[in-house]
Design goal:
The structure holds two protein chains of two kinds. Chain A is mainly alpha-helical. In chain A, 48% of the residues lie in helices and 1% in strands. By secondary structure, chain B is mainly α. Chain B has two domains: 82 residues, no CATH class; 82 residues, Winged helix-like DNA-binding domain superfamily/Winged helix DNA-binding domain (Arc Repressor Mutant, subunit A). Helices cover 66% and strands 1% of the residues of chain B. Classes of the chains: A mainly alpha, B mainly alpha. Chains A and B meet through helix 1, strand 1 and helix 2 of A and helix 1, helix 2, strand 1 and helix 8 of B.
Amino acid sequence: MSERSEDLELTGLESALRGLQPQVETLDRAVLMYRAGRASARGWGWPLATLGATTLAIVLGILPLIRPAPVVVERIVYLPAPQPQPPAPTPEESVTPSTPDSIVVEPLDASPRSRYLRMQEQVLRWGLDGLPMPPPAAPTEEPPTVEQLLQSL
Amino acid sequence: MGPEQLSRLVDEHAAALVLYARQWCAAPEDVVQEAFVKLAAPQRVPENVIGWLYRVVRNGALAAARAERRRRRHETAAAERMPSWFAPTDAARLDGAIATAALRGLPIEQREILVAHLWGGLTFEQIGELTGVSSSTAHRRYLSALAALRERLRVPCPNDPKTWS
C-alpha cells in the first residue's frame, strides 16, 4: 500500500516536472538556420579543386629547379660537297638600282620596240632622272669654208 | 537534410537539448547550435536523428565544460549566478527556480538521465546507448533521481501551491 502511494507520488512529481518548460535564452533560431544552410551548401568540390590546383602549381614550380641542365652534344655532320658549277655567262651589265644616282642602264636590245619599252619603264620608275645619259655626240666637222669649197672644184 | 525537417527538429527538440547541455556547461545554446549545424552538413543524416543529436550535444557540452574549467577557476560562483533552467509559466505546478536548485543538487549521472527522459523524451534504451550504461541501469538511476528530487522538493509549506508536498 505504501509502495503504491509512493509510485503515485513519483508519477505526480514526474508530470509536474514535465510541466516545466526549459528556458531557451539566447538560442537565435534565425542564426541557427542561416548557419545550417551554409553548412548544407558546403561541399568538397571547391576544396578539392583548390587542392589540385595548388599541388599542380607547386609541382610545376619545383620541376625547373630539380630538372638537370641540358647537355650539349657535339657531333660531326658530313654533308656532300657541292658540285662545281660551270661558269655562268656573265651579264654585260648588272642592274642593282637603289637610288637614281646608281642607275646602270641595261644593255638595250637591238629591237627598237624593246628599247622603247625599257626606256619607258625606266622613266616610270625613276622619272626623268632615270633616263640614260645620251651617248657622247660624235665630233662634228666644221662647215667648209668658201676657199675649201673652191679648192674642191 | 531539408530545411523543413531541420526547422521541425529545432522547434521540437532545441529547448530540451539546451536543458540537457546545461547540465554540464554554461553556454548550452552554442553547443546546441553547433549540433544542428553539424546535422545540416551534407552526407550526414544519421538513422536515429534524436539520439545522434543528444550524443553530439553531450560531447559538445562536456568539451565546453572542460574549456570553461580551464578558463576560470571560479566555476561554483559562476554556477550560482546561472539563471533558472525553466521559463516561468502559469501552468507549471512547480516553481522553476526551486526545481532548478533541486535538479542542480543531483549527481550528474542521475540528472542527465532525468533530463533526457523527462524533457527530451528519450527511451531508457536510447539513454543507455547515450550514456554507456544498460537500459535497466538507466531506469534505476532515473527512479533514484526522482526519489531524490521528491525529497528535495518536499517542503512543508501548504500555503505555497508551487512547492511539492
